[in-house]
Design brief:
It comes from Aeromicrobium ginsengisoli. Keywords: Hydrolase. This is Alpha/beta hydrolase. InterPro entries: AB_hydrolase_1, AB_hydrolase_fold, Sec-Metab_Biosynth_Hydrolase. This protein has a six-stranded parallel beta sheet, with helices on both faces. Strands 5-6 form a two-stranded antiparallel ribbon. It contains nine helices and eight strands. It is of the alpha/beta class. Helix content is 33%, strand content 15%. Helix 7 links the parallel strand 7 (175-179) and strand 8 (207-211). The protein has a single domain (2-233), classed as Alpha/Beta hydrolase fold, catalytic domain (Rossmann fold). Helix 2 crosses helix 3.
Length: 234
């Protein structure tokens, strides 16, 4: 099976370095993407929006001869859902890692602070610790330092542009939601409340939810466990 790994905000293909080899060892053809504007600190991020990230994933799907599995982490999950909407017939399963299938018209995170130059830098860690947040659970200080040293500013449009969906065939694509910072009970509550990140779940015909308790970046904090869950999901 061809598996396309899509990173979240501030990350590139390198963020899957501890995941991809385990999937390849299981016999899969693995491609890890670096999305537009996240190639380097010096990359041109002007004018890049969510549609550009979706288009990059669609292009990778179109290169495959057979249906693929898409794996999207965090904000990358919203772009994955946009690609599923455009290529439902070519996606065998979509997997969302502490993410969800963002609905039409919603932005991924419009509240993230930008630097005034069309970029959203990685915020201070304190922002992720507010209100008892679980995002940084299981991180070591060395891992946090490495993450910050390698983080690339995000094009602001990716965080703020509305999702654009048009084809209800997306609801026919099976999904797996690997939740690391929410429990299954909490997800059920968010679904009942109509929260954006989970409002598409009741419409999708085949949904599997797996809890993997850790921080928001399990590819760093629990890579072996995440790789195992991904192998099972595929």
């Amino acid at each position: 099976m061809k598996i396309i790994l899509v990173p979240g905000f501030w990350l590139g293909a390198w963020s899957w370095d501890r995941i991809a080899p385990a999937l390849e060892a299981a016999g899969h053809d693995v491609v890890a993407l670096t999305l537009p504007g996240l190639e380097s600190v010096d990359a041109d991020r002007s004018g890049i929006g969510l549609a550009d990230h979706v288009a990059a994933i669609v292009a990778a799907v179109d290169e495959a001869e057979e249906p693929v599995v898409l794996v999207g982490h965090s904000g990358g999950g919203a772009a994955v859902h946009g690609a599923v909407d455009q290529r439902a017939d070519k996606v065998a399963r979509a997997i969302y890692v502490d993410s969800g299938p963002l609905p039409h018209g919603a932005a991924i995170n419009a509240g993230l602070p930008d630097n005034g130059n069309g970029e959203v830098p990685l915020p201070p860690w304190e922002l992720f610790r507010e209100d008892g947040g679980r995002d940084l659970n299981d991180f070591t200080e060395a891992q946090l330092d490495d993450f910050r040293a390698r983080a690339i500013p995000l094009p602001v449009g990716v965080a703020r542009d509305p999702q654009v969906l048009a084809d209800e065939a997306r609801f026919d694509v099976p999904i797996t939601l690997i939740s690391t910072t929410f429990t299954r009970d909490e997800i059920d509550q968010y679904v009942a409340a109509g929260e954006d990140y989970f409002s598409e779940l009741p419409k999708i015909k085949d949904v599997t939810i797996i809890e993997l308790p850790t921080g928001h970046w399990p590819q760093f904090t629990k890579p072996e466990q995440l790789a195992e869950v991904l192998r099972d999901a595929v």
